[in-house]
Amino acid sequence: MNIKKEVLKSQESLKKINIERSSIIVKAKFGPSKETKIPLDLEQKLSFFVACIIGDGHLKKGKYQISIELSNLVLLNYINKICLGLFDRSFNVRQIKRNGRKQTYAIYIDSKAIYFLLNKVFEIPFGKKSDIVVVPKLIFNSNKKIKSAFLLGIMATEGGRRKRVLDYLLLAEICGLD
C-alpha cells in the first residue's frame, strides 16, 4: 500500500536529504541529528513495528522521543533489527533496574522523523494512550499480510502469556518479517 503523500506531509518540517522511490531520507534542520530513512510504502515490518509501539511503547509528550520497554530482550532486539532495516538506524538497548519487579529493557528512539511518522501517519497519540489508541486507518484498510503483521506485533507485546513471545517471533519469521 502506498502512503507516500501522508509520509511526505509528516516530514515537512525536516530537512530532506534524498527522496527515492521507496523512501525519503531526512534530518532535523537544527541541532545535531542523524539521517533517518523513512519508508514511503506500508510493508509488513512497518506494520509490525507500529503495533509494537501501540502495544508496549509510547511517544513522549515533552520531546520527540519514542520509548518501548519490554521484559523480553529477544523481542526488543528483534524490534531494533526492524528499526535498522526500516530506518537505517539502530538504537541502544538499555537495562532498566527496578526494585522488586521483573527485569525489563528499553529502547529510546530519539528521532523527530520517526516520531512524526508514528504520530501523524499512524495516528499514535503522544503521552498516555491506553484508553484512546485505535488501529490506524492505513493498516485497517490494507491487505491481509499487513493486517497479520500488525496483529503479530500486538500479540507479541500485549498477548498475555509472555512465554509465547518466541512463538510470535517464529510466526513473524515465517511471514517474512525476519
Major sheet characteristics: 4 strands, antiparallel
User: Helix-strand pattern, N to C?
Assistant: HEEEHEEHEEHHHH
Structural class: alpha+beta
The total strand number stands at 7
Regarding quaternary structure, how should these chains be classified?
Answer: single chain
Q: Overall pLDDT, averaged? A: 86
- Weakly predicted, low-confidence segments: none
Coarse shape = globular
Please tally the helical runs, counting DSSP H or I stretches of 4 or more residues: 7
Q: Kindly estimate the percentage of residues that lie in beta strands according to DSSP.
A: 15-25%
Commentary on this structure:
The two termini are 20 Å apart. α2 runs parallel beside α6. The protein is of the alpha+beta class and 178 residues long. The strands form 2 sheets. It has a 4-stranded antiparallel β-sheet. Strands 1-2-3 form a 3-stranded antiparallel β-sheet, with helices on one face. 42% of the residues lie in helices and 19% in strands.
